[in-house]
Specification:
2 domains; about 70% helix; globular
């Protein structure tokens, strides 16, 4: 196995674990709504989750560990990516924002601040900021 194969394997595994954690959040009420399913479909495509892995994760989502990033900057990077996905896909409405808030909590953000963090994240993304600006702006709001 080459070095690049190791990197690809680790990257794919992190994406699968990240995706499984989001599925677990979506399943917290016992069902995946049509809106959540549409979001998961787009997320799986963007994370390059194969159809076979997608089906397996949906079936056995609890077998994947939840590994929220330990670093605050990594949490912000994931939130940035997810917020951009929501914005680029023109996802609107309470259902998507509620799911994004649940995901933010799953990423390790304080449940009491999740709505505010997600609102700020979506505003920043809609304003077209880059990752560095996004991180700095979210950090400043928590000072």
């Amino acid at each position: 196995m080459s070095f690049s194969d190791l990197f690809d394997s680790g990257f794919k595994k992190r994406n699968e674990d990240h995706f499984a954690a989001i599925v677990r959040v979506a399943m917290d009420d016992g069902i995946i709504t049509d809106d959540e399913k549409a979001f998961l479909d787009r997320l799986a495509r963007n994370l390059e989750i194969s159809e076979a892995n997608y089906a397996e994760i949906l079936k056995n989502y609890q077998s994947h560990p939840i590994n929220p990033p330990t670093s605050y900057d990594r949490r912000l990077e994931r939130l940035f990516d997810l917020s951009r996905m929501v914005y680029v896909d023109h996802i609107k409405g309470d259902h998507e924002e509620v799911l994004l808030r649940k995901i933010a909590v799953g990423l390790g953000f304080n449940p009491e601040n999740a709505k505010y963090v997600v609102d700020k994240a979506l505003t920043l993304v809609s304003n077209g900021v880059d990752l560095d600006t996004f991180i700095e702006e979210v950090k400043q709001m928590n000072r």
